[in-house]
Structure of EKC/KEOPS complex subunit GON7:
Amino acid sequence: MAPAPQPSSETPAVSLHASYSSPHPPTSQTFHHPVSAPLDINGSVAAKKAYLSELRGLVTKMQGEINAFLTERMEEDKKAAEAQGQGLKDSEREAKEEENYGEENVEDDA
């Protein structure tokens, strides 16, 4: 998720992009946020701080959007698996994994 410079006449316009694609089912999603603070490498410290501050905020915002999207996709996949009869087995496994999260699982060592 690095900023992608866009060509411009004066200072380059910068935007933050992230793309998601999945072959099953064919799904793609693009996340995009333009950075309004100018990117001026030779600018003042205050200008650089403003740019980096905005970029940091946009990265956090985009991360939240991506997490929400992926959570939604996981729920859709879970519902599809349950519709095919795999849900109970997966739910039991997930519950057991959650119960043992951060703990050593002796059953796996055998």
